[in-house]
Design goal:
With about 200 residues, this protein is an all-alpha fold. Helices cover about 95% and strands about 0% of the residues. Among the domains are: about 80 residues; about 45 residues.
Length: about 200
């Protein structure tokens, strides 16, 4: 009898395993009620021992069964207290998990911000490099225009030198032509003079 009842009480905690904190809270309240019942049974057992000490053996067996049942209830109440403690621990773990999730979300957000800051720094360096290249390009364009202007001036100077040499050659030719004209004029005068002399003779 006692062994079968022990097996029943051993299986009882398995049927009382809660699935949520509310279930554990209700189970804890029930366990407290059972614990009060155990105390009441203990008082009844003491009263029964005082009033029926000389009763028949069946009454004694009944009291022994009642005491065994009370012990089982007391064991159940102790298990309920354990479950209540487990529920409290579970609530603490749940709050810790929520806090950890918050910290994890914060860490993820920080990593995103750090990645964004690194990307921004890279873009800033690229922008500075682009500005430097743009200034260099502007300077190169200015130098290119200056070089083109210098080439034009050099071409103009070469052309001017050619024109100057041509002008000098023209002046020389003009001077030679003038000299030739003077010689031809003198020759014409001599011819006329000679002709005049021949006529007079």
């Amino acid at each position: 009898m006692n062994h079968s009842f022990t097996r029943m009480t051993t299986a009882t905690p398995c049927s009382l395993v809660p699935y949520s904190c509310n279930t554990l809270q209700r189970a804890a309240k029930h366990c407290n009620a059972l614990q009060r019942s155990v105390t009441h049974y203990d008082e009844l057992q003491r009263t029964a021992k005082q009033q029926y000490s000389n009763t028949v053996e069946s009454r004694a067996f009944h009291l022994q069964y009642t005491a065994t049942h009370c012990n089982a209830l007391q064991h159940t109440a102790a298990h309920c207290n354990t479950l209540q403690h487990t529920a409290t621990h579970y609530n603490a773990l749940q709050r810790t998990a929520i806090h950890c999730n918050t910290l994890q979300h914060t860490a993820t957000h920080c990593n995103t911000l750090q990645h964004t800051a690194t990307h921004c720094n890279a873009l800033q360096r690229t922008a500075m490099h682009c500005n430097a290249l743009q200034r260099t390009t502007t300077h190169c364009n200015t130098l290119q225009r200056t070089a083109m202007h210098c080439s034009a001036l050099q071409h103009t100077a070469t052309h001017c030198n050619a024109l100057q040499r041509t002008a000098m050659h023209c002046n020389a030719l003009q001077h030679t032509a003038t000299h030739c004209n003077a010689i031809q004029h003198s020759n014409d005068i001599l011819i006329l003079y000679a002709h005049h002399m021949c006529v007079c003779v």
